[in-house]
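Practice record 12: protein with zinc ion.
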Amino acid sequence: MPSGSVHNLINTGAFLLIAGSTAYAKQQGYVDPSIPEILAFTGTFFVGTFMMSPDLDLAEQNVSSKKAWGIFGFIWVPYGKMFSHRGLSHTWIVGPLTRLVYLTILLAALYYLAILILPDLKSRIRFENVPRTLEFWQPYILGYYVSQWLHLIADGISPDMRALSRTFKKKKR
Ligand SMILES: [Zn+2]
């Protein structure tokens, strides 16, 4: 299986291909992404590639995605301990979701800790301004998931069917 830097290289190359074909499709009038949509996709694609790769399931070691968090890399150690390498973390739909949920729980804990210490903070952070339409979040979700799927393809893992059949086989035994 490819190392972290090889994964990063594959994803960056794939991004250039996606960018090139999107530019072509736009020129041909097939798609018309807005600048905010392009930035959203690009942002989550590279965060997904460099900082939230499936190999964080090895975060108890020194993987590339953990290093990208700098001094905050340690926050992924429990995730690495929780998930076996190339297990649930390396599935197509649930795998990327596990990392999002994990990060959300950590951020929520941090938020509640922060407002416990600084009660004023609560009135300053306005969650009601966060967009709630799927249409808004689509390019963000797509960028993240495409980055994860490219990793899985490079690892030679096909869509979740394999994980499903593995679970099924285990149950039968
Ligand atoms: Zn991997």
